[in-house]
């Protein structure tokens, strides 16, 4: 913990939010009356516009959305939340013993924040692990979510037929097999990526670079260094929510309880990078169970972190697709009305 510097963290955060080119406000939303635990909330945009709540990915933070804030604020008032036990939110001792408890650990604070912020219904957007949490929230509080925007979400699909972890391992390159063997070793010992980071000493920057998939074109060295510094510092805080992973996913990173047949009555936009390690299989599987419209978009020149790789296209396709969902819903309603009143 000796490398943790709140001063460095705040300096990097200030720089990244300045690059957002839009006024932002950071606040804390307390989850109980004793002010024991709080959620870090980044807000921006016109309060008169429809609300969108955004949830970051594993080992991430709401600040990492800085490159898409301005674009999304064209249409929405944004509330970007750091998950409990991650980012700059409180980090309680993680004592959850099963999947349901793990899901509630992340979902319940979002519901408290919604209530504290006075939001009735909203668009819920989540990236990667935050996409899984967003799906769990929509399942538990369906009357609060108008639409889901799932950006490269984990935990949607079921295993392919005949899939085995060993068979998948054998199909990978020797480098990937080596990495996965390390992952399995850490997994068995309940060690997280952040645990490794805390013990990596001078190599922590390389771990963050690997987490992001390498340096990102179009981003200056100064900006990239602020990204690295922020993610390093925010993950040097004591471990908490990160320890949930092995109770939610298996070693192949498939969900123990996939969302493909749990999200059955919510309109969804799925977005994936064209170089993403997460494939669109989950969106296709979900379309067989979900009674509401689904739109799938591919973001060009992007890996898993498309909000950094290609923010302009990501924003454009989010805004366009959400409007398209509205149009599809109106068309469906009209068709239902015509079926109910065939003589009109």
TrEMBL record:
One Pfam family for this entry, by name? Abhydrolase_1
* Gene Ontology terms describing biological process: lipid homeostasis; phosphatidic acid biosynthetic process
Q: Which residues form the AB hydrolase-1 domain?
A: 50-311
Q: Which GO terms describe its molecular function?
A: carboxylic ester hydrolase activity; lysophosphatidic acid acyltransferase activity
Q: What InterPro entries is this protein classified in?
A: AB_hydrolase_1 (IPR000073), AB_hydrolase_fold (IPR029058)
Annotated PANTHER family: PUMMELIG, ISOFORM A, RE40534P-RELATED
**Similarity comment text for this entry:** Belongs to the peptidase S33 family. ABHD4/ABHD5 subfamily.
The molecule here is called AB hydrolase-1 domain-containing protein
In which organism is this protein found? Answer: Blepharisma stoltei
> What lineage, starting at the top, does this entry show?
Eukaryota, Sar, Alveolata, Ciliophora, Postciliodesmatophora
